[in-house]
Specification:
Elements lengths: L1 E7 L8 E4 L11 E6 L2 E13 L11 E2 L7 H13 L5 H7 L11 E6 L9 H10 L6 H8 L3 H9 L3 E6 L19 H16 L3 E7 L5 H15 L4 E5 L3 H15 L4 E3 L5 H12 L5 E4 L11 E7 L7 E2 L5 E2 H12 L2 E6 L4 H8 L4 E5 L10 E6 L13 H12 L3 E5 L8 E4 L16 E3 L4 E3 L6 E3 L13 E4 L3 H11 L5 E4 L7 H12 L5 E4 L12 E6 L13 H13 L10 E6 L5 H8 L2 H15 L5 E10 L2 H13 L7 E14 L2 E11 L4 H11 L7 E6 L6
Parallel strand pairs: 8-15, 8-16, 9-11, 9-12, 10-11, 12-15, 17-27, 18-25, 18-26, 24-25, 26-27
Antiparallel strand pairs: 1-2, 1-4, 3-4, 3-5, 6-7, 13-14, 19-23, 20-21, 21-22, 28-30, 28-31, 29-30
The chain binds adenosine-5'-diphosphate.
Length: 720
């Protein structure tokens, strides 16, 4: 008999492995351990301990326990729940949960500290620095920022002997939040919503609320009140606020820092590994009490999570599409349930799923129907492109150009919204008619002029724009078809040569710092016309922005998938909602070829409820989410015959179950990606069916061979 530890490894393996625990090693569930695997040591997490014999083969001996915080039992439970939900192996969500644990810790660095000697000359700036330094060692740059002086002042104090530089570990970044700082007084409807949220938190246990308020109604102010209440209710309580975009985290971090007197933990792919490690350890040890992050923050090892806020909850960026596939909004509700915590979903355009949950009473429904203060919702007008089209090769219609000229003349700002990166979405050869596509992938190459390359947005493949057609060899025959934001910028410059124009897309804004700079320039009035993809069309408040022009409102409707109408409505309502903050009235012009489409009519009339009603009714008749469940299976492989044989076998082994329909296999709309052919199944199930269980059982019946891979996507958002 010996002690056996089940260890889950952060790898795509089907189950936890058993190891023998060395004598004398103290172990508990949740501990991080070093486990030998195929000749190397892997960090894993103990999921179970028992006494027993190892079976026929001796078990491998654990190499030891890491000197690192354990995963809380609820974190572990969440990881296992998420895996079952996704019909996937638990090692994948565990890898997300351990991402910060395995990052290198910050190294000791040169810190400035006070020597106690007075400077030879005292100026107000120098005194501010010395006051800031009294709080403890700090990086010189941080000290300068805290004292609001230039780096030169800090340097001068070092030269002068009043400060010295010494190697020291970086200071603990997360102080306790200050819960007594003044907050702006809430208006009556905000106060009512905040009171309801506070009552929910005071009641305790798992609770969910939908904070449904028009753009600019002050949802952030309201949920920050709830955050304060949750932190005040329990000195160990932790709060997580999830946002869909890194660009949005920056604005919220600034607001949280001001509101609670210190920076929250920041968690997204742009955070450098040492800072991640700091956040991870501090969250696991309960020192970091507020986290603002993107979807993967949901997997942080919270010790006492008492409130989760999902802001812009409708945003499809919450759906993670590669690797471990999950919908962070849905998993946020699950995590809250496991933690016995509250969850607040906030949006001006909630998802139909959440609206349905509010309608049926599963979520409390808190509505804010007016903008705060003097601000009013913008006037929305449809521009019928059939009647007032732009000139050939142009995309700004005469009515929009006129409105832009007026806005410019009034010294106000315009946002041109086009959800397309690059210069042109398609390049074709005038001589042979071929459309340029990526090698090995069924998708058009997008022209980028800033870099002069053709890029596949699906795989990242890129090549210089060729001088000759790669198909027929003709010279100077390639033409750029359609607009992207770069081309729109070009047109705006032609129309308004004197205007200050900037582009906000994931190509021009590559980091959180870039986003902050651009947003600050816009807020300060340093930009007249901002040409933007969805990266800038949501969440931000630009006080002097009074005109939003939507260039191609029909773009998102063309795919025709389940959520096309819903997504288009949300995106355009958000984009047009950027216009008219504070006391300046705003307007939005939506260019469309289909002004009679229900989405366009609902946007024009600002009648979200009518749109939602029609959409929900249609979904109910078809048994589609939120009334039924969907799952997709993508099967891919390099060898077409082997793939064909495998999907047949898979079709034959689909379990029979009541209330489940399996469609396919069929060629996926993107039938070739990176040289792999793709087939898909679509599964529809009634609401009460355990679709995750069904998909897990199906998956277990088949064994992919050779290059064949199976991906299961529960509740798919993309149908490629
Ligand atoms: P939402 O999240 O609903 O779009 P925000 O919380 O960002 O709205 O608020 C929009 C703007 O109005 C922000 O600039 C915010 O500071 C301001 N605001 C909202 N409520 C108040 C309030 N009660 N007092 C002062 N300013 C407010």
């Amino acid at each position: 008999m010996s002690r056996i530890a089940s260890v889950l490894l952060p790898l795509p393996l089907p189950e936890a492995f058993d190891y023998e625990a060395p004598d004398g090693l103290e172990l508990a569930v949740g501990d991080q351990v070093a486990a030998p695997l195929g000749g190397r040591l892997v960090t894993g997490v103990v999921t179970g301990l028992r006494e027993g014999a190892g079976g026929n083969r001796p078990l491998k001996l654990l190499a030891g326990r890491l000197d690192a915080p354990p995963l809380s039992p609820s974190t572990l439970e969440f990881v296992q729940w998420a895996a079952r939900y996704a019909a996937d192996v638990a090692g994948l969500p565990l890898a997300i949960a351990l991402r910060g644990a395995r990052a290198p810790p910050p190294r000791p660095d040169r810190m400035a500290m006070a020597t106690g000697r007075l400077p030879t000359r005292s100026t107000p700036a120098r005194i501010r620095v010395l006051e800031a330094a009294a709080a403890g060692p700090a990086m010189p740059a941080d000290l300068a920022r805290r004292a609001e002086v230039s780096a030169a002042v800090v340097r001068a104090l070092i030269d002068d002997g009043a400060l010295e530089l010494r190697f020291a570990p970086p200071p603990e970044p997360f102080g306790p939040p200050d819960l007594d700082l003044p907050a702006p007084p809430l208006n009556a409807s905000q106060a009512a919503a905040a009171a309801a949220l506070k009552a929910m938190i005071a009641e305790g246990g798992f609770q969910a609320a939908l904070l449904d308020g028009v753009t600019g109604s002050g949802k952030t102010e309201v949920y920050l009140e709830a955050v304060r209440a949750a932190l005040a209710a329990d000195p160990a309580a932790q709060v997580l606020v999830l946002l869909p975009e890194i660009a949005l985290t920056q604005a919220l971090i600034a607001r949280v820092t001001e509101r609670f007197g210190g920076a929250p933990g920041e968690w997204h792919s742009g955070v450098a590994p040492p800072q991640r490690r700091q956040v991870w350890d501090a969250v696991a040890e309960g020192r970091c009490r507020i986290v603002v992050g993107a979807r993967s923050a949901l997997f942080l090892p919270f010790r006492r999570l008492s409130l989760v806020v999902v802001d812009e909850e409708h945003d499809t960026s919450f759906k993670q599409e590669d690797g471990f596939i999950y919908q962070a909004r849905d998993l946020a509700v699950v995590r809250a349930k496991i933690e016995n915590a509250s969850v607040i979903l906030a949006s001006a355009t909630p998802s139909l799923e959440s609206l349905r949950n509010a309608e049926t009473g599963r979520y409390r429904w808190l509505r804010l129907s007016d903008r705060h203060g003097e601000a009013r919702l913008p006037d929305i007008r449809l521009v019928d492109l059939r009647q007032t089209p732009p000139d050939a090769g142009r995309w700004i219609s005469p009515p929009l150009a006129e409105a832009m000229a007026e806005t410019l003349a009034a010294g106000e700002q315009t946002l041109l919204f086009l959800n397309r990166r690059g210069y042109a979405p398609l390049v074709l050869c005038r001589a042979c008619g071929q459309k340029l596509t990526a090698p090995d992938t069924d998708s058009w190459l997008v022209e980028h002029r800033y870099t002069n390359r053709l890029v596949c947005h699906l795989t990242g493949f890129s090549m210089p724009r060729p001088a000759h057609c790669p198909h027929c060899g003709a010279a100077d025959s390639l033409v750029s078809i359609g607009p992207g934001v770069e081309r729109l910028e070009e047109e705006a410059r032609l129309l308004f040569p004197e205007a200050r124009i900037a582009v906000f897309s994931s190509d021009t804004v590559r980091s959180a710092a870039d986003a902050r700079t651009l947003v600050e320039t816009m807020e300060a009035g340093g930009i007249d016309i901002l040409v933007a993809t969805q990266a800038a069309a949501k969440g931000h408040n630009f006080p002097n922005l009074t005109l939003v022009g939507v260039i191609d409102a029909d773009l998102g409707l063309r795919g025709g998938d389940l959520r096309a109408a819903e997504r288009t409505f949300q995106l355009l309502a958000q984009a047009t909602g950027r216009a008219g903050r504070r006391d300046r009235p705003g307007r939005a012009l939506i260019q469309t070829w289909a002004p009679d489409h229900p989405v366009m009519q609902a946007l024009r009339a600002q009648d979200r409820d009518a749109f939602v009603r029609t959409e929900l009714d249609e979904r109910e008749i078809a048994g589609l989410p939120p009334f039924g469940r969907l799952a997709a299976v993508i099967v891919s492989g390099r060898d077409p015959d082997a793939l064909e044989a495998f999907v047949r076998e898979m079709a034959a082994s689909a379990p029979n179950a009541e209330g489940v329909e399996v469609y396919g296999p069929a060629d996926a709309p993107l039938a070739l990606v990176r040289g792999r052919r793709r087939k898909r199944f679509l599964v529809r199930a009634d609401r009460q069916v355990d679709l995750s269980g069904y998909m897990g059982a199906w998956r277990a019946r088949v064994k992919p061979r050779g290059s064949v891979r199976v991906t299961v996507d529960i509740d798919p958002y993309s149908f490629f």
